[in-house]
Specification:
- This protein is an alpha+beta fold.
- The protein has three domains: 199 residues, Multidrug efflux transporter AcrB transmembrane fold (Up-down Bundle), CATH 1.20.1640.10; 76 residues, Hypothetical Protein, Haloacid Dehalogenase-like Hydrolase, Chain: A, domain 2 (2-Layer Sandwich), CATH 3.30.1240; 131 residues, Gyrase A, domain 2.
- The protein is 53% helix and 21% strand.
- Strands 7-8-2-18 form a four-stranded antiparallel beta sheet.
- The longest helix has 33 residues.
- It is elongated and about 110 Å long.
- The two termini are 23 Å apart.
- The mean pLDDT is 83.
Length: 515
Amino acid sequence: MNKPLLWRFIIIGAVIAASLYAALPLNKKIKLGLDLQGGMHLLYEVQTEKAVEMSMARTAEDFRTRLEAIGIIPVSFGVDDQKRIAIELSHAADLDKTRTEAKEFGELSETGKDANHLYYGITAERAQAIRQHAVDQALETLRNRIDQFGVAEPMLQKQGENHILIQLPGVKDPERAKELIKTTARLEFRMVDENASLQEALKGNIPPTSELMYEYAKDPVTGKIEPRNPMLIEKRVMLGGESIANADVRIDQQFNEPYVSIEFDGEGARRFGELTEKFIKHRMAIILDGKVHSAPVIREKITGGKAQITGGFTADQAHDLTIILRAGALPAPLALQEERSVGPTLGADSIRDGVNACLYGSLAIIIFMAAYYRTGGLIADFALMLNIVIIAGLMAYMQFTLTLPGIAGITLTIGMAVDANVLIYERIREELGYGKTLRAAVDAGFGRAFLTILDTHITTLIAALVLFQFGTGPLKGFAVTLTIGLIASLFTSVYVSRSLFNLILSNRKVTSLKV
């Protein structure tokens, strides 16, 4: 065996060894998609109008802070039923100053005036930008939550203007996963209103600047988390969850129950220190999604930038809450529009049927090639089996997900791999018919058929890349295996087959070959 041919087989042997090693079950297993191992298919609607309302409330709070900074203290200030910021000023002289500040604020447009009242709304352009951003932010937040939850190869993508499609393969606890996804996780620190009467509030006489809320705690008898203690909470948010840098689960040594320890970022720690210094001996409520988890009395200024959320959590609940807090709050609530579950039994049936289809198809091709092309057919059969090994090895090494359409892509590439050999062999037959020697016919067959094979593989590869870029989950699964199969096919049908022919022809006693 000459040196160039020896190097060819060294390369082929290295590819076979690497593919077999990667595809072994003891190493990196090929991940299975939703349709093969079972899981959840969820379609959520992002309630973008809620995002506009929440943004309006934050804008109103920022605007009030700005007015107070220049000495304008409104008699009343809030968002009315028409989603406008309604401002009542105590002095008519403050009207012009308020308008000036509103213009510099940039996001507000005046929508009405009545005596000492001004009304503002956000611009239509700003509202549309909020809706668009809410969907994009929700998608990113959900991706972060699911990644931390530990789901292998989830699929999340936007559908339409305000829908998000989520596929979670192999989820063992569907209800826990749905709870993790849908929780808005809006964390707020607000002061307890200790000036108004709680008894009057329970009768319906609630001050306009406060709202009646309940502190949730574990019932000592049932063990359920239930609303127990009513309290008046100021509407003004002193600090939000956007200032959280980290969250961890800790164990309360006194009650042996898990709680969530949160740590603020630099700006959040500074603001938290200022608040705790300003409101010493007052109660600060820690509110998550409208539920008061605790309302401790501030004893002293807290400078460490840390706080804790209690509430009788289980270990899983505390763990999931830390995931949610680290990933960030959703910009708007989600509404479940569609839910489908794929059981593992159905997935096993799909795997069996798909594998059987590949095996039967491959077996039929192997028999036909060996019967029709004889020696050339056996070479093509070896290249075909190597093609399947390389596909499995590359998918395992790159940790791609195998789906049912992906199995269809593998089956298609098997046909294309054999088709390349057919082109070569028919060309060799033509050259032999012209009276050329066996070696000259083989050289001409591989040389002249190569451009045709390359053209067909490149055009198919372009189509596969387009499917991968713009297709949904099933199409992407098909495109992945098709792309890998095309690369493997080009290697096996041309490089490997040519090397085997050269090995046979290196024996000078060989003067004829059945192809």
